[in-house]
Amino acid sequence: MRKTSFALVMLTVLALTACTASTGVGATQPSFSDQVASVVAGTLQALPPSKTPEPSPQPTDEPGCPDPTQGMKLFTQESMGYCLLYPQGYLEIYTDPAQVCLVPEGPTMGCHNANAFINVEPAAGRTADQIADEAIADAEAVIPGIGIRRTGATVSGESAVVLEGLPGVASSRNVVVVHDGRLYELIFVPWDETGEDFARIESLYETIIHSFSFLPATAWTPSPAQSTPIPSTSTPIALACPNALPTRLQVGGYAFVSLDPPLSNRVRNGPGPDNRIIGDIEPGEAMKILKGPECAQDRLWWEVQALEGGLTGWTAEGDNKDYWLVPCSSPTNCGVP
Predict the structure, then answer these.
(1) Which pTM does this prediction carry?
(2) What is the pLDDT of residues 121-160, one digit of tens each?
(3) Fewer CB within 10 A of the terminal residue: the chain, N end or C end?
(4) Residue 294's domain is classified under what CATH number?
(5) Claim to verify: residue 37 and residue 158 sit in the same structural domain
C-alpha cells in the first residue's frame, strides 16, 4: 500500500515540476519546494498507519501435567515418566519405585485394600496388544473357557487395551499401555458393577485415565531379580537365601495365606517382585505348592495354585521377619486357626 502511494506522490511531484517550468513562479504563488512538501505531507497523512506484525505463537510439544481442579490431587512420578490426577480421599503408597497404589484414607493394610495400582516395567519390545494377548493366554491356561472382556481405549494419546475378567481373588479392570519402551499397567479393584462402592471406583478410573500424562522419563533399569533356582525335595530344607527365613514348605504340600495379619499375597507370573502381578490370594485361602523354591531379592518364592479359582503363579513365603504362608497337611485343614 505504501509503495503504491509513494509512486503517486512522485508522479504528482513530476507534474508540479512541469507546471512550474511552463508558468514560472510569481510573488503570490508558493514556491515549488513548498508545493512538493505540502503534497507529500497530505498524501502520507491519508495513508493508513502501518502495523507491526505480531509474532505467531509457536506450538510446543513440551509434555506437562494437568492442573488439579477442586477436589483433585496431582500425583507425579517423574522417574517412571508419568503424572495423573486422582480424587481427594486417597493415600499414595509406594511399594517400590515402579509400583504405586492408591488406598482410601483411613486405616490401611499397605496396598492390600487399594482401589488402584500403577505398575511400570520394561515392555521388552512388545506392544500393548501383544501383552494383552499373553495375559489372556495365561488366564485361559489356568481356567479354560474363562470369559475375558477386551476393549480398546486411549491413554495420553497412546492406544491401550482394557481387560476385564482376568483371574484373581478380586474382580479387576486392567488397562495396558506401552509408551517409550515401557509397559504401564493400571489396575482398578474391585471392579464390580453391583458393588456398593462401584460409583466411587468408577470415578477414580475415569479421573486417572483421562488425566494420565506421559513425561520424559529418566533413565531407569529395574534391578534384576537375581533368581537362584534351588533344588526341591520332599521335605523342607535350609536354603541359602540371604535375609530370608528358613522355608517351611515343600513341593506337593499345601499352605494358606496367614490370617495374622489378614493381608493377601500377591501372585506374579515369575519369581521376584519385578515380575507382573496376575492376582492375589486372600487370607485363609489355600493353595497347592507346585514348584520351587527360588530365591529372589532376599525372599523365597514358590509356584502355587489356588484351590479356589485355580489362580497359578509365584508368591513369596515371607520376608526376613514374618511368614506369610502357613503350611498345612491337607486342603481340608488349611486356614483353620
Answers:
(1) 0.54
(2) 999 999 999 999 998 988 787 678 888 999 999 999 999 9
(3) C
(4) 2.30.30.40
(5) no
